[in-house]
Amino acid sequence: MKKLFKLVSLLTLGLFFVACGDSASEGFTKSGKAGSLDVTYSSAKPLVVGDNTMHVSITDGGKALTGAKVEMKVFMPEMPGMPYMDYIKVLDASGDKYSGNINYSMGGTWQVKIYIEKDGKKYKHSSSVIL
Ligand SMILES: [Cu+2]
């Protein structure tokens, strides 16, 4: 009986960790290249229509890129019955993290551009998200 109780406790504990793992992975993250740089942009929460705190991290040959000017732009091309719309934000730098609010004003596919400027060199990362 004691053994069974132990087993049930372990299973319950296991489920608890599985549940926690799920909620942690519900955030958003996507990676790609900007020229020679590696770019990851993410949000702690799933993306929603409206305001989202986005984080960008950049590495150059595996080393975090600090002191860059990073601008994020999201846009939707014009569609029948919908004008072109965009949202542009220069991200705040804090160490090797660049963050800022991005507002996706409607559901659908948004084109994402991340412009990076460092020591006079310019890089661009192109991506897209679906809300
Ligand atoms: Cu639209």
UniProtKB/TrEMBL annotation:
Domain YtkA-like: 35-114
Stored InterPro entries: YtkA-like_dom
Signal sequence range: 1-24
Keyword Signal: yes
Name assigned to this protein: YtkA-like domain-containing protein
Keywords: Signal
Record bears the keyword Repressor: no
Domain of life of the source: Bacteria
Species in which this protein is naturally found: uncultured Sulfurovum sp
